[in-house]
Each structure stands twice: as structure tokens, then as C-alpha cells.
Design a protein that fits this description.
This protein has 503 residues and is of the alpha/beta class. The protein folds into 2 domains: 3-208 and 480-502, no CATH class; 214-467, Nitrilase/N-carbamoyl-D-aminoacid amidohydrolase (4-Layer Sandwich). Helix content is 43%, strand content 18%. It contains 15 helices and 13 strands. The strands form 2 sheets. Strands 1, 2, 3, 4, 5, 6 and 13 form a 7-stranded mixed β-sheet that branches. A 6-stranded mixed β-sheet has the order 7-8-9-10-11-12, covered by helices on one side. Helix 2 packs antiparallel against helix 3 (46-65) and helix 8 runs antiparallel to helix 9 (190-202). The protein starts with a helix and ends with a helix.
Length: 503
Amino acid sequence: MNPKSYLFLVILGILTGVSYSYIYLIPIIIISFAYFFFSIEKSINQKNSFFIGWIFGTGFFLGSMHWIIFPFLIYEQHLYLSPVVLIIFPVLLGLFFSIPSLFLHNFLKIVNSDCLYFKSFSLSLFFLISELTRSYIFGGLPFNLTAQIWAFNSKFIQIVSFIGVYGLSFLTINWLVILSFLILEKRKSFFAILILLPVFLYNFENFYFKKKSSLINKNINVRVIQPNIPQEDKWNKLKIPIHLEKLINLTNKDLNEKEKYLVVWPEVAIPFYLNEEKELVEYLRKEIKQNVILVAGALKREFSNNDFKIYNSLYLLKKDEFFVYDKRKLVPFGEFVPFRKFLKFTKLTEGSTDFSEGLNKKKIDFKIDDKIFFLEPSICYEAIFQSFVEYKPHLFVNITNDGWFGTTIGPKQHLAASIYRAVEKGSPLIRSANSGISVITNSNGKILKKIDLQKTGYIDVKLSTNNNNTFFMKFKNYALTLPILLLAIISLILDITTKRKKN
């Protein structure tokens, strides 16, 4: 391939990455993948195929995750790292496209060219393995999974309650690969396949019987607060009292005192070690109306011998007690510095001490009018990871601070991933983000109310909760075997049928 072809691949990769991430230009994705596979098919050797995948993948992650540099632009001491992150990050992640590309090059040599559907199935399986590896290796980074191209409408993602986000990724990858080969081979069946998956996904909830009896009469009033505090002001000691007053006022404003409320504040809304601040806790209980159960992000510190650990925590404050959940999935370089012995710079968040991983259980329960609610907490980007708990959460709560990323597509991608968790669990999502996007969804992931980026305010919703786990939560990622086995059988049948017609 000549340099112009490589440049074109980079551009297509960038366009594909942008199309994945909240813009959802599916026609661009189809065309880009078709050219990508065409380039591999025409590649002269393994090295060339590997490089094609790497170039396309680098472009993809540059387009989809360029926002990762914005936290490095907020404080002057980290500014020098921004160009390094912008270059190295997509270059390394590009390897998750290059390895499947190498597989494709070798696979095309041994597989009968007439076996279009089985060829597509095999390649899709390898891309799925690559996506799973990216989600778990070195802590994982499951942003912009292929499944998320359908996140523009909750109707298209209901199948996630059955086979999970990776199941939908596999179906989508297989669909894209088949379409690519159909384009390359100029087959008329392209148009039938083109509409098949979208139509199936959109109507899935009509096929998949949901027990109406699972709905129980557990209603709860929820208020989500979005204070919209600028990141550069968040730790300013002179402004912290003003920020707290703002949060309290938004909490109490026009609150129906005859009803009880669960009110949710964002990540580290209280920038203190709240477990040590008895006076502050008493102040909050005094100032916030008595019909409020408060969920808020704050810090926690624990001493042991001559050392101490700090945690990014979620607190649930009742009248006379509080529960604490400590964040388990920490953000590399944001909350801790990996390989600290070798990398000599401070983390992005305030303070020089790294955060510690939480070890306590996720289960938090509270009672309203003799009704017990189970809450599953998640802090920041924990919501992009699948989580499995031993109980059915009535509410899935995510507190975050996406103010680091301004008005980029980063907060939008984060929200999209969080909604997939709600659908997997069959639990309403309650999401409080410092600067947006804050939302309340139903158990199907449909947004009921939201507050847009860099807006200040609150939203109220009376939520209905259910007591039944989804099929996916019962069987976890074992459910992924269903679409894999089904597509393997269908692929073989289609290839055999097509071959007989030709003969």
C-alpha cells in the first residue's frame, strides 16, 4: 500500500471512531469497515495486514477517545503530558485492531471463498475476543464497545437484558463483517442483511416476554442534583462552603415535605474525609430536610499503625447513621499512578497520596415507609464495567464528576455505557454528574429526565422498581454463548444453502 492509502485508512478510522461515539453515523461505519477488510484482503503479507489494522485502529481510538487528554490540560503541572497521551494512547490501543487483522489475513488463505457467512462468523468471533481482552487486560477499558453504536435509542438495546453488552457487540460485529463482504462481492443480499439486525433489535422486546408480575408496588421519589462546579474551583477551600450551600439549596428547593426522597449528589460533592467530620455530618442533617435520605460522594480516610489510606467513597446518610461504599475500580493516573516506582509524577486528582481500592461490599439498603430498597452503588467510570452482585438491586446509582472532560464527547460516552448497565440489570439508573450529564432512567434504560452538560439544577422522578433479575444477570456472561452458537449454526446453514443454489 502507498502512503496515501495509509492516510485514507487513518481518516476512515477517525471517522469510524467518531461515528461510534454518540454521533451514530452507522452508514459511515459500514463503509469504513468494508474498505478496511478490502485493504486486508489485498494485503501482500502478514506484516502489511498487521500494519493496516494498526493504522485503522489508531485512527479509531484517536477519533473516539481524543477527549482523554482534557484532564491533562486543566492544571499546569500536567500540561506537558497531553501530547504524549494523545499520541501514545491511541497507538497502543490500535493493537486491538491489528491482531484480528493478522488473523483475517491468514484465515482468508485457508477458508473457501464461497463460505461467506462462516468466514464472517469466525472473523467476528476473533474481533469479539479482542474487544473482551481490551475490556479486562491491565484493568480494562471497555469504552466504545461495538454494541454502543445502538445507544441512540433504548429500543435497540433491550436485547442486552438477555445476552449482555458483549452479546450485542458480537451480533453487531458479525453484521458489519457480513455487510462488508457482501459489498466487496457485490451481492444483492446486502440490502436484506442491512435491515435485518436493526429491525430485529428494535422489535426484540416484543419477542422477549417480560413478566408483568415482576413489577411490584415499590415506588420511590428520587431527586438528582447537578451543581455544575468548575473543576478548577472544586478544591478551592474558600469556595467549598459556597458549593455546599448550593448543594443544600438545590436539595431543599420545592421539596414536597409530605413525601420521602432519595436525593443523590455527585462524586466527591463533599471534598472532606466525611468519616472524620462529625460536625459537618450533623450540619448536613440539620440543614437538609428531614424527609431526605442523602447519597453523596465524599472522601474517606483510615489510619493503620503509622500509615493511612484514603478512599473515593459514596455515603448514604440517614437520620442517625450512614453507610459507606469505597470505590473499587480506580482511574489510572487520575486516582493512582501505576508503576509508581518508575513513573515520577503526581496523579491528576488533588493530593499526592494515591487512592486505595475499596474492599467493602456493594450492598446498601434503606427503608422508606416499611419498604426496603437495595441500592447498587458505582462511582465514576465503574459504571462502564459489568458488575454482578448477589442481590437484585432496585436502583443502580452512579455518581461521577465528568467536569474533567468539558463539553467533549467523553461524558456522552460515559452516559451511554452506564445506560447499558441499567438494561443488563433491569434496574433504573440514577446518575448524578457534577457538570452533566445527569439522568434518571427506567429499568429499560429509557431516559425519563436529564440535565445537559454544564447546566445547574435538579430533576425529580417517581420511580417504580421491580424485584426480578434479568436473564443476563441470572446467567451472566454465560448468556454470551447463545448468540455465538446460534450464529455458528445459521452461518453454516446459509453457506450450504448458497452453495447448493450455485450448483
